[in-house]
Amino acid sequence: MIFIIAVCLFFAVAVTVAIILFFFKYKRRTEVEVGVPIYGDMRLEAAWMIVPLILSLAMFGWGAVVYVDYRTTPKDTLDIYVVGKQWMWKLQQPNGLREINELHVPIGRNVRLIMASEDVIHDFFVPAFRVKMDVVPGHYNTMWFQPTKPGKYHFFCSQYCGTNHSVMEGWVTVMEPSEYASWLSGSSGGGDANPVVAGEKLFAEKACNTCHLSDGTGRAPSLNGVYGAKVLLADGATVTADDSYIRESILTPNAKIVAKYAPLMPTFQGQLTEEQILALTAYVKSLQAQPVPATGSGIAPAAGKK
Amino acid sequence: MPRVHYLNATYGIRSWLLTTDHKRIALLYLASVTFFFFIGGLFATMIRLHLLTPAGFLVTPETYNKLFTMHGVAMIFFFLIPSIPAVLGNFLLPIMIGAKDLAFPKLNLLSWYIYLIGGMFVLYSFSTGGLDTGWTFYTPLSSVYSNSAVTPAVIGIFINGFSSILTGLNFVVTVHTMRAPGMTWFRLPLFVWAQYATSIIFVLGTPVIAITLLLAGLERMFHLGFFNPALGGDPILFQHLFWFYSHPAVYIMILPAMGVISEIIPTFARKPIFGYSFIAGSSIAIAVIGFFVWAHHMFLTGESTYAALAFSLLSYLVAIPSAVKVFNWASTLYKGSISWDTPMLYALGFIGLFLIGGLTGLFLACLGLDIHLHDTYFVVAHFHYIMVGGAVMGYVGGLHFWWPKITGKLYPEFMARVAAIVLFFGFNLTFFPQFLLGYLGMPRRYHTYPPEFQVLNVMSTAGASILALGYLLPMIYLVWSIKYGRVAGPNPWPSTGLEWKTASPPPTENFDVTPEVTWEPYDFKNRPDLGLDAGPSLAPAHGDD
Lengths: 306, 545
What we know:
A: alpha+beta, Immunoglobulin-like, five-stranded mixed β-sheet, elongated, B: mainly alpha, Cytochrome C Oxidase, Chain A, two-stranded antiparallel ribbon, 66% helix
């Protein structure tokens, strides 16, 4: 950052000073005076192509390192589900506690936001943390940060999203881990608010459980242990069963067919809200530790248990 | 002044509305882009006034959103893109290469009518419900959720695109086939090179925006799923298609201005431009590389990390030809005979503002910094430095430079210098604080803002009122000069281009006799016809080395 500012300031000042200097030094003295004809200089041209090129490659390299680090989610994250809709943010703690336009996080943890939109494109932006990411309908985008200092920090929607775009904002409260723990337990989690419980209920309501039998004898693969594992597809490819994969399998089931299964599943496009999809995903995630049946699972054999 | 010229050769409204004279069509464009500039400027004024207080005191959120959307649409599609090509380019390109007109004069008139029809649709949209999608028309906001008059606006911009395509086609063919004897490619004025590069972007890029907005319109009208995820579409696809045109469109706006500056600087430094072939080549390089940087608008949409790396690298590469131009312009001043006439003040202002605009682009191209700066006021400041500080300064500077050729009259020099200086300071006061606002985290397109941002917003609004004055002044004295200005004569500065070899204003056919070019571009030494003290020797004009 300082390097870029320094380089830019140097060139801005150097060129400006040169121009102003020339303006005064070579001011026209007589009406008919003509300047010295100089047509160019190959060495100079080469120099002012190569030097800026090298400097800008250095800027690129530094920026690339920061960006790749930002886009690579670290292990062991505290996952917060975020749903943006015109014009509010709904956030949900891992234990199911819901917040609106407020987010409480502990210092020292890597906090990952898994974000979905109910309608148009939004963008979650916390200036103090130097992080932002678009929240795009039809996609999950994630971003992460590690809070280091307790306090309250403004967050904004920074992708224009319609009439009340500018009030779609809120506060991140960063707390000591112990405070955070007591805040979490002091507020009512559990019950229907818990995404796993809500997801399990939906799983039955939407009759998912009539095919996805846990022992693998159903018309659809068992979902035990599938989250985070590699799934073998009908075309021989494998895919990691992450949030986006589960979402896609619910909304457009025929996009990726698990090997040895018929494309029977109906689409749930338009029948589930983003929050319901997140609840179902949370439920599938909770099955991660369940025993995987020997047959009737979509998990790729070579990959084995994660 | 000549007794008969293109302005008074024929009379009556029909002689203007049915003209095929490129110079008259340029004036038709001048009137219409000025109209849109003032509409867009009015919206901008209201935006800045509204943001005087954190709560915003002038308009409702709905109205505010419409103001910045309509400001963008009017300024970009109906002022900036056509301004230099369709006004100055139309007027000058044939004269500069020694031709009687463009290759397709009737097509040229058709371009203007298409522009007008597109403009009518957009004005209809503005006046019946307005437009609140942002000029970027991001889906699914524009295609599903917005309640404003999106459909007529999209149709208007679609239609207007054909005007750009036809103008581009006309320019490319004209430069290839209509050059006067002796006017080789490397004797072309750099303004023509810039117009040529711009025309390539017009022809290759405009169809993409036209079809993209058409798809968004179809999605809105008939619920065909292209971009709406609920219909199986992908909103990110829209952004790829949109920026595939709209990033090169930035170069459509700035390249012609660079062409203007490349004409002004050698004229008022009275020496050949430094590194002619590098300036010409960098225009082409910008036009080509400019097509491969579009996804740098999308680093935070969730696009793949590899794509982001590639587009960041390419964005740095496109900065190099721009830097080459700046260095060459600055070097041209070295050992010149520099006058401080108005066009030169604009050129100087252009370089200064373009420097800031360009260098802040390096911050945004940097992946790590863009995470923070994307969609904040930093971006707003950056592109206004390029488009207003760069393109508009170039356009107004060019208008002053060629005003004596267009009208045959000189404008009042003192007033013009004052206006140039007012514009420069007003501009900086308006937009420099916005860099700081963006760095502090104020997002774009906010109708209200947290109170800690107020001081900088007030500065920006104060600057905007100075800026508005800076634009009104030239309007007044330029119009005044048409009637009361001093007669300019064919070559008042003097300058070396072919356009200065003919009368001011030029005759309808541009030249009485087809000119033959025997001199190199920007050569003041071997041009006795300019009446300058070329002297027999090539000794330095200033005996200081």
